[in-house]
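Incident log, structure service

09:12 report received: a user says their structure output differs between two submissions of the same chain.
09:20 pulled the input from the user's history:
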Amino acid sequence: MVYIPSRLGRVAVKEQGSGWGTAETSFAAANALRCEATLPSLVREALSVDNMRGAFHAPEVTPGSKVGTTISLRFPAHGWNTSGAAISGNPTEHPEALIVKNALGSAVQDGHQTDLLSSGTASDPEFTSATDGLAGSAQLYPVNAAATVFGVGWAEEVTQGTPDAVALAEALDAAPDTSGSTTAHGSNSIYLSVDQPTPITVEWYGAHSSAILRLFDGIVTRLRLIVDPRGKLMWEADLVFGGWTLASDDSATALGDYASPKPELAAVMGANGGRLMVGGTSIAAAGSLSAEVTVEHSTVGSYSSDQGVAAFVVQNRTVTCEVQVPANNLGEAAGEDLNPTPGTDTDIVQLDLANGGGSSFSMLLPTARLMEQIPLEDMDGIVGVKRVYGTGRYASDDSAEDAPANTAFRVAYL
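09:34 re-ran on a clean worker, output below:
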């Protein structure tokens, strides 16, 4: 008898190129998502009617739809490229970026430039000719002479001139330094929008070729980013699917070919370009941080689709961000721990891991709205406070630019 060890296998993720109702059937190593061991929760409805019968026996049962199948994934954040300084263009979407985009709504890849000038400042980097439409996207800048230390900036506005200046939502820790490189790396900036998701196929490939499941017509219903100082950026994602199917052996996805060309991101600390900004201030002492996207959806029925579902339609996306910091002064005056009060819009929350091209990440909540009274928490023996933020309306980016400018929540792979 052949067994299937639960810790052997792989998970691959791919957007469905033909849309709803058509599962992807070809996967490669580039589609692999390095995640913790997981098992899908398969669904097949069992339809029965409690008819009158002549004895006490089970009613007739008819197999129904497979809609409602789910899988939960937990995985470390990855960069998109291992080439570092040799990167010559804008990022491409890797598997986890597809999951993040499915949850948030939209993404744009831009900002790679090789004409960074030494005349710029920490708040206004300058270029010979800045990328048109850059507002709302992130860039990665070298900030030391050897081009080994970096900073992430989110563009608010590009002022055309001689040279062009890019105003940043939050200033860098130091002005760009072009002694070692004039390259500003671009980003895959993923942002909160009202766009409907492209359905996803997830292939769960077990320990051998007789253990392959393909879950199709999927959307993300919950996405959570979790990080602690000195820890790894971790994602948790829950997905629901319109159906599943068994797959036969596919040599392109054999475990022997399992490799992930994407680098796991480094620990979030200063040596790796880590920083947390809240309200325009760098937070030197902080505990855990999390951001969660909750997606509400409706199911559109169909008589002709494979499993009786035409599509899942997103009705709402809600983002909350929690930041934990040590308490100092439990007052309610400006600058004290219990200030601001619920409903107050504060300034930007920005988390950066600026560790070089292809291996950097940033999260931006440009208008953080305090959603509840600040609770007290025990932070490993120290009294702390936890601030729970929602997405307030943001309008400080160039109003003439399209999204991601002026969107309420964003993450970037750089």
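09:41 both user submissions now match this output. Likely a transient worker issue. Closing.
09:42 reviewer note: The mean pLDDT is 91. The chain is about 0% helix and 40% strand.
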